[in-house]
Amino acid sequence: MEQSATATGQSPPRDYEALRAELAARSGSLSRRLAQVAQFFLNHPEEVAINTLVQLAAQAQVPPATITRFAKELGFGGFAELQAVFRERLLGPRLPYVSRIGNRLPPGELSLADSDLDHPDLVFGGMVQAAMQSLLRIDETLDRQVLARFVDVLAAAEMIHVAAARGAFGLGAYAFYGMAKIGRRVSLLDNLGAMRAEQVCAIGPSDVLLAMTFDDYTPETVEIARMAARNGRQVLAITDNELSPVVGLAQHVLYVNEARLGHLRSQVPAMIVCQALIVSLARRLGGALSPK
């Protein structure tokens, strides 16, 4: 049985970055339910800041008592104290924006009522707001030093192998296209014929694997990253948070936390990260971007 932070006398994290670090350190040691809550909270910090316990439990698909137990596991007296950490995170430049979009969508939600789905203009507006919120988040949180290291590794690699599937496949295909256009040797590991093991074997010792997977964590992509790491190959990962299964397999990780609208995830921030990598890589190599 897990021992709570309160029982061990450990002080709870008092800011969002400390909370992220605490959850990353506890990755693999939390129970399945508590890990589910941790994953949801890291993926939806704005929602945690302004929604009620009952609303969050419904969104995370856990009983409310599980969220309360999660808060106490981290050393908080209850959910209200944990939520205060997320609310404090909103007190910077983003608070006016959160207030503004709150006038157009239900407070704290990037969602639409079933009746709204019959109106393309409302669906479009919801998707725009989800993308805008994600862009504000990534602009504040993306580690620029890690971004620079990505460019260093991609520039030095003899060949780049891209692994992305299902919801992230469009990003992977675009990364493949963009890097090929600037003259890089690049392959897209598409698992055709379920031959991902054979494709991973083609990754040379001077090559690098770029793996992209988000909150559904496509098993095939995770397995490709695992096999590449086991073979001693360099791995770069673009994923959503520190609890992602590819984090421990990669030398460098870029975190892109994307807002959701229903079952759809905004891909705008991750696409911008890919474009920044491609443009920076072209500049580093002295190449030129095609206008197409």
Percent helix, as a range, is 40-55%
**How many domains in all?**
2
Query: Count the strands?
Result: 7
Summed up, the helix count is 13
Side by side, the strands of the main sheet go 2-1-3-4-5
Return residue spans where pLDDT drops below 50 for at least 5 consecutive residues: 1-8, 92-110
Specify Rg, calculated over alpha carbons: 20 Å
Second CATH tier, the architecture of the largest domain: 3-Layer(aba) Sandwich
Coarse morphology: globular
CATH homologous superfamily title of the largest domain = Glucose-6-phosphate isomerase like protein, domain 1
Topology order in helix (H) and strand (E) letters: HHHHHHHHHEHEHEHEEEEH
> What's the CATH topology name of the largest domain?
Rossmann fold
Major beta sheet, specifics? 5 strands, parallel
Instruction: Return the structural class.
Output: alpha/beta
CATH class of the largest domain: Alpha Beta
Question: Could you characterize what this model shows?
Answer:
The protein is globular and about 55 Å long. Helices cover 51% and strands 9% of the residues. Helix 4 (53-60) packs across helix 5 (64-73). By secondary structure, it is an alpha/beta fold. It has two domains: 16-89, Winged helix-like DNA-binding domain superfamily/Winged helix DNA-binding domain (Arc Repressor Mutant, subunit A); 144-285, 3-Layer(aba) Sandwich (Rossmann fold). The model is unreliable at 1-8 and 92-110 (pLDDT under 50).
Indicate the topology.
Elements: H1 16-25, H2 32-43, H3 45-50, H4 53-60, H5 64-73, H6 79-89, H7 95-102, H8 120-141, H9 144-156, E1 160-164, H10 169-181, E2 186-188, H11 196-201, E3 208-212, H12 219-230, E4 234-239, E5 252-255, E6 260-261, E7 264-265, H13 268-285
Helix pairs in contact: 2-5, 4-5, 9-13, 10-13
